[in-house]
Amino acid sequence: MLGKVPRFAAGVVVGGVALFSVNNAAADDLPVAKTLTLEVQGEIQEHCSFGSIPDLALGDLTAVGGEYRRHVALDCNIPVDIKVKSSNGGLANTVYPNGQGPYKGKLGYRLNLVVPIRKPALGVVTGSFQSAQLVGGGVLSSNGGVVLDGMELTMRFDQLRGDDALLGGDYSEVIEITVSPS
Question: For residue 99, what is the enclosing H or E element?
């Protein structure tokens, strides 16, 4: 109840006119102000969906050149950190990753990430990592923004020059990308 309601006395009819008296509550019985606290709660389920990235088969490494791009589906309604880690720090010879004699056993690369975000205005965060530094891992933060439209991943392999020659054999690299709340 918000306050006292005035009570009405019984009406008396005198000469065809009804008379009513109002008994108001005393002014000191009414509070000056009333406060009502209303607690409202709700939630939106946090989600972060991350698509797959197809493997990249390069073939003959002596002919590797240019950029290799992949669009990766990524949609997160919370701010995130994107952690990137390399198993070899480059495309490494599976038997002799450190090379033999004058032949190198590893082909380095640069990995670039471009991620469109909203916070609340649209923006972009970018990260660029050299393969050798990815052995320890690298992090790209959405800087408080949410990811709406995926991620562009670009790899550019180091160019072999002059005396650079790769050791014969199979080469491989595993890049692990982890998305987690920031």
Answer: none
CA atoms of 157 and 176, how far apart (whole Å): 18
Q: What is the CA radius of gyration of the chain?
A: 35
d(CA 62, CA 179): 33
pTM: 0.75
In which residue are the tokens 């992090």 written?
Answer: 139
Both tokens of residue 81?
């950190």
Written as six digits, the tokens of 1 are 């109840």
What is the CATH code for 48-53+60-181? 2.60.40
**Is residue 169 within 8 Å of 96, Cβ to Cβ?**
yes
DSSP reduced 3-state for 101 = coil
Give φ, ψ of 84 to 5 degrees: -120, 130
pLDDT in tens, 11-39: 444 444 444 445 555 556 666 788 899 99
